[in-house]
Design a protein that fits this description.
Blueprint lengths: L1 H31 L4 H30 L4 H46 L1 H107 L4
Helix pairs in contact: 1-2, 1-3, 1-4, 2-3, 3-4
């Protein structure tokens, strides 16, 4: 049961780190976003989903901490939960600031377009392409991290399955040991009984031999010394 809890805690921590990285990458995308507002709205929707997943995992980790048997392990996990909550609050603050910065940038660009016309539009297009390339590189890096985290989660699940199989094997071995112990006890009783019977047989043989010798001596005495 303790091993299973440890695996669950490790999986929670890994996914919390993964969601935290994804949130940070999306916040950076918002900072780099130059519009339109629909693009910003789409990014904010993704951030909300990631925050939801992150909050759920933190709650699971907190519940696991409360279920720990050792007080030291419980307090250590609760401290980790508190750190994750602080990091999430920090991300939420960065998210709000990134939204404000992005909206200001979009407003400034729209105002500049009114005055500069086509030249600014072409420049904005170039900037958007550059930002798109940067965002694509960040997204690719994040996908690599996500794949690595998924592999670690899968390995943890396999380890938990191995532990469960080992537990079943130990239980089966314990049952076999109990069966063998009963057989050994029965054998011990039979050997003890056999030893007792052998001792009785020896005693009877000795008594019969003594009686025989006494009879022989008596007959010899009567034949050789009839006057005694």
């Amino acid at each position: 049961m303790a091993a299973s809890q440890d695996v669950h805690v490790r999986i929670c921590n890994q996914e919390i780190i993964k969601f935290d990285l994804e949130v940070k990458a999306l916040i950076q995308d918002i900072r780099d976003c130059s519009g339109p507002l629909s693009a910003l709205t789409e990014l904010n929707t993704k951030v909300k989903e990631k925050f939801q997943q992150l909050r759920h995992r933190i709650q699971e980790l907190e519940q696991s901490a409360k279920e720990q048997d050792k007080e030291s392990e419980k307090q250590a996990l609760l401290q980790e939960v508190e750190n994750h909550k602080k990091q999430m609050l920090s991300n939420q603050t960065s998210w709000r600031k990134a939204n404000l910065t992005c909206k200001i940038a979009i407003d400034n660009l729209e105002k500049a377009e009114l005055f500069q016309g086509g030249d600014l539009l072409r420049q904005r297009k170039t900037t958007k392409e550059s930002l798109a390339q940067t965002s694509s590189a960040i997204t690719e890096s994040l996908m690599g991290i996500s794949r690595m985290m998924s592999q670690q989660v899968q390995q943890s699940e396999e380890a938990m399955q191995t532990l469960a199989n080992s537990s079943r094997t130990i239980l089966d071995a314990n049952e076999e040991f109990k069966s063998m112990s009963g057989t050994i006890q029965l054998g011990r009783k039979l050997i003890t009984k056999y030893n007792r019977r052998e001792l009785t047989d020896k005693l009877l043989i000795f008594l019969a031999l003594a009686l025989f010798l006494a009879t022989v001596l008596y007959i010899v005495k009567k034949r050789l010394f009839p006057f005694l």
